[in-house]
Amino acid sequence: MSMNIAILGVGLIGGSLALCFKGKPGITVVGYSPNEASTIKYVARGVVDKATTSLEEAVIDADVIFVCSPVGLLDNVLSELRALPLRRGCVITDVGSTKASVTRKARELAWEGIHFIGGHPMAGSERSGVEAASTLLFENAYYVLTPENDVDEEAYERLVQLLQYTRAHIIRLDPVEHDRVVGAISHLPHIVASALVNQVKKYNDDNDMYVHLAAGGFRDITRIASSDPVIWSDILLNNREVVLELLADWKHSVENWMETLEKEDGERIREAFKESGDFRSRMPERRKGVLHSLYDLHIEVPDTPGIIGKIATLLGNHQLNLSNLQIIESREDVPGVLRLSFRQEKDWEQSNELLTAMGYNVFV
Ligand SMILES: NC(=O)C1=CN([C@@H]2O[C@H](COP(=O)(O)OP(=O)(O)OC[C@H]3O[C@@H](n4cnc5c(N)ncnc54)[C@H](O)[C@@H]3O)[C@@H](O)[C@H]2O)C=CC1
Ligand SMILES: O=C(O)C(=O)Cc1ccc(O)cc1
To answer: Which residues form the ACT domain (predicted)?
Structure first.
């Protein structure tokens, strides 16, 4: 059976979805971007079968439409789609990082014969644009769908089936609950990361020792401070009520820490780290997939030519099978970080031991 997919906004997420669907049996992927410059980029990357700057042309024959624009534009795009002649039974979904407002908007539009199902792939990166798109982006990640209670279950199932090509785990959630949970595990951390980096930047203005010594833990917890400014101002403004409540809790927690230090309360510090360590160890660090398992290791490597080949050869010589190798950080002044993925736990474990024994800084 043939299926036409329209991707509106072919950036990091839209481009990655397009790559997951393109070339699959019976599927044709059409890309749409309102501007020529971004069209040239995604056409050059070859992520779609066809590209257009006409919204009507992109969606007129579509069976499934993915709206992949920044959150602040989602309502406008839905309104534009409402005015177009779409295929009856067409499924419209989005990938925005917030779900309550877009779901409300779709309901307001009272769309006869069209099924809107909100979506949010819980995978991505601090990078943006189609240049960073990858077929592997969603593999083993969670992909949240937020249908309303009266959704057409057959349309929902069709979308779930299509999303199997992403190799993500589908989770069904209420849109308001989604925004509360994601506010805490994604939106608040992005603010904290940005605030932390900017605090250190201020100190660094008078003493550049800060930037030289910032490594290890600081780099780990601030990677997302480099996220796209437009994408993130849209997300935070959209979910501001939830985020403001979370920031009030955060403020409370900062005050608690101040009090703990003022009172020199070592017991409370130890309790805090014990509690956070215990909870963190329950988080799914190595996510297991339905199709196969993935085990990740991260290693710091010097920025020298041939280092990737050297690591791959080293593991190969010990019969340790890599399923993927990705550079996730590469800068001239600091060591790069490689992500090594394995399908087998034993390969993951032995590689961890081998690389640690060889003096590499390995973390999971
Ligand atoms: N960056 C991430 O890691 C994740 C982002 N998201 C969500 O995915 C969406 C897209 O984010 P990214 O792919 O990271 O951003 P991106 O900046 O890489 O891509 C956004 C794309 O939207 C296009 N666009 C702009 N105006 C448009 C319009 N009126 N109609 C259609 N397309 C338009 C842009 O040309 C660009 O190609 C956002 O809603 C974001 O909240 C969801 C999960 C992860
Ligand atoms: O880079 C990371 O770790 C992210 O947190 C990426 C991300 C950004 C936005 C989302 O809505 C979901 C995931």
So the answer is: 296-364
Does residue 358 belong to any structural domain of this protein?
A: yes
pLDDT for 315-358, tens place per residue? 999 999 988 887 776 555 455 788 898 888 888 889 999 998 88
Complex-level ipTM: 0.98
Q: Is 121 in the pocket of ligand 2 (CB under 6 A)?
A: no
At 341 the three-state DSSP class reads strand
In a domain, 284, yes or no: no
Can you tell me which atom of ligand 2 is nearest the CA of 186? 5
What integer best gives the mean pLDDT of the chain? 92
Q: Please tell me if the CB atom of residue 96 comes closer than 6 angstroms to any atom of ligand 1.
A: yes
Q: Which atom of ligand 1 is nearest to the CA of 13?
A: 13
- For the stretch 150-173, pLDDT in tens is 999 999 999 999 999 999 999 999
Are 116 and 240 contained in the same domain? no
Q: Is residue 237 part of a domain?
A: yes
Q: Which ligand is nearest to the CA of 94?
A: 1
CA 337 to chain centroid: 18
Place of tokens 């939106």: 187
CB distance 125 to 12 below 8 Å:
yes
pTM over 0.95: no
Which run of H or of E encompasses 258? helix 240-262
Q: Is the CB of 95 under 6 A from ligand 1?
A: yes
Confirm whether 290 is domain-assigned. Answer: no
Q: Point out the domain boundary residue: 113, 140, 173.
A: 173
d(CA 307, CA 303): 8
> Could you identify the atom of ligand 2 that is nearest to the CA of residue 124?
6
